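chain below, 152 aa
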Amino acid sequence: MVSENDFLGRGWSFPPAFNPQSSPKSVAMTAGLADIERSLHILLTTQPGERLMVPDFGCDLQDMLFEPISTALQARVKDRVETAILYFEPRIDPLDVTIEEPPEQPGLLLITVNYRVRSTNTRYNFVYPFYKNEGTEIPNSADPSSLPSFSR
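prediction:
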């Protein structure tokens, strides 16, 4: 059966998962608009060079992770996101990319991509939070019991 959004594509869900209910077991798939949003997420979280067969794929955001948030940084992030979408997501036209730092969460940049699906002229947006998880899993060096133990 063909749906009206089949032209948007279909791919593995990310992270990869399997359908335990299906017989035989099959890979979970995403299609349509969900596939575009997963692709945007993958594009923005992939560093160039991570994919051996497509070494240019990705959006080089990680090298800016510890830079102070400034207007210049936001402009560089915006440029890298727009360039990555231009080269690697042909199903959409980015209408606007905005970078915001919510005042209630310092250190977080919200990257919002307003886009139009090329074949349908339908408008959507995608919000990607650019930050690393807090260092809550880091052992407290002042508390020796929180440090990993090594046996010889």
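The mean pLDDT is 80. The helical segments are 32-45, 71-88.
thats it, cya
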